[in-house]
Write the structure tokens for this entry.
Amino acid sequence: MSNFNLEIIILVVGFLMIIAGVYCLIRTYHLLKILIGIEVAMKAVTMFIILAGHINGKINLAQTFVITMIVTEVVVAVVAAGLAINLYRKYGNMDVRNLRKLKG
Amino acid sequence: MEAIIYICLGFMLICSFLVVRIKSMLKSAVALAAASAALGIIMYVLGSAWAALIEISVCSGLVTVIFISAISLSNTDKKELQKLYEDKKRMAYLPVVLIIGGIIFIFVALSTDSLLPQAVSVAQEIDNFREVLWNNRQADIWAQAIVIIAGAIAVTVLFKEKDTI
């Protein structure tokens, strides 16, 4: 049990969160749920970046990366939510299989 | 302080499981906000106070509002949702996948003697965050500005009601 320090437990929890997010990503057809799966996986990656900064002592550099990542995450969420709403207006649901029917 | 991190990690894992597993989209969005808040606490305890502030205010606040707005604009009955997407059936194997993944990761962690180096003290680094952000990482700031402008333009185009040509 001596191997179980804090960093390893954070790594294991992060990998499990990535598995949950990717599972959600590949198993559902709901566009908003897919977006939520991406968000769950990105939370784990954010935690990994902070953990890396904590381990090598460059926590400020890690913070700047995390801030950039959060900004990108919000823009992705906003644009994907707009796409989902447009899909709902056109087809009455948010099924991604409907995206195959779009042309032009 | 480590006990707080352990509690928040457990809470975050449970919330992430619920986010993926819950049928109701609204509850799913709220569980995602709770996971973000727990991540913010972990960040603060690990010494990154500014990132924790932005994580809690933006990811736990703004993104949840965006999701809830999108859900309220597409008001579909829960039974209809279940009939259309069959999420209950499709998500049935998630606990099995998580347990197998957890066992594999714990086994890998136990089989390696020194997986990670010891953490370096960051006490002397905390004060010069402003210098790193504004002087050393200016490219990031410009990239953020461009991404925000691109996102604003994309939203304007997506929510356009009629063609104005």
